[in-house]
Amino acid sequence: MTEGLRARARLAMRTEIAETAFALFLQRGFEQVTVDEIAEAAGLSRRSFFRYFPSKEDAVFGLLYDLGEELAAAVAARPAAETPWTALRAACAVMLTPMLSRSDEALALLRLINDTPTLRARHQDKQDRWRKLLIDALHARGVDGIEADVLVSAALAVFDVVCRQWIASPAADPVGLMDEAFAVLTPSRESV
After folding, report:
1. Within a domain: residue 107?
2. In total, how many domains does the chain have?
3. HSE-up of 41 (CA within 13 Å, CB side)?
4. How does pLDDT run across 41-83, given as a tens digit for each residue?
5. Rounded Cα distance, 135 and 149, in Å
6. Nearby residues of 149 by Cβ (< 8 Å), 6 or more positions away
7. Which of 30, 35, 144, 176 is deepest in the core (most CB within 10 A)?
8. For residues 58 and 118, what is the distance between their CA atoms, to the nearest angstrom?
9. Do 159 and 95 contact (CB within 8 A), yes or no?
C-alpha cells in the first residue's frame, strides 16, 4: 500500500469516526457519550479509537485537524501586493466555505462547541496553533512582530464573532456576516 493510499484510508476512517461521534453528541449531549460508545458505534475497539484521536474532544474537531495549515497556505497564496488584513480575510473564507455546504451540520457543531465548556477550551487550544501558523505566514509576507500577532488574533476573533452571530441568527448569511465583521476592523485605506 502506498503512503498516499494509507493517508487517504486513515483520513476516511478519522472522518467516519468523527461523524459517528458527532451524531452521538447531537443525540445525547457531549458529556453523556463515552469513548467506548463512540468506538462501538463506529465498529472499533476503544484502543483503535485512540489510534485516531487522543481524546473524545479531539473527535469533535476531527475534520478540522489540517485547517491551520490550509489557512496558512491560503495566506501564502494571496497576491504579494495585497494587504495582510485582506489576505487574512480571504484565508478565513477557507474556514467558512465547508460550513456553507453543510450549514445545518455546521450550525449544530458550532452550537455544540459553544455550549460545552471543555469543547470551547479545546477550540481555543486549536486556535492557538492556527495563530502560530498564520503569524508565520504573515512573517513570510514581511509582516513582523506585534503587527502580525495583532492582525492574526483580530482575524480569528472576528471569525469567532461571525460564528456566534450565525448561531444567534441561523437564517443570517454567514458570508454577509463575515464581510460586515471584517469591515469593522478594516483600516479606512483598505477595502475587504
Report:
1. yes
2. 2
3. 17
4. 999 999 999 999 999 998 988 766 678 888 999 999 999 999 9
5. 6
6. 131, 135
7. 30
8. 11
9. yes
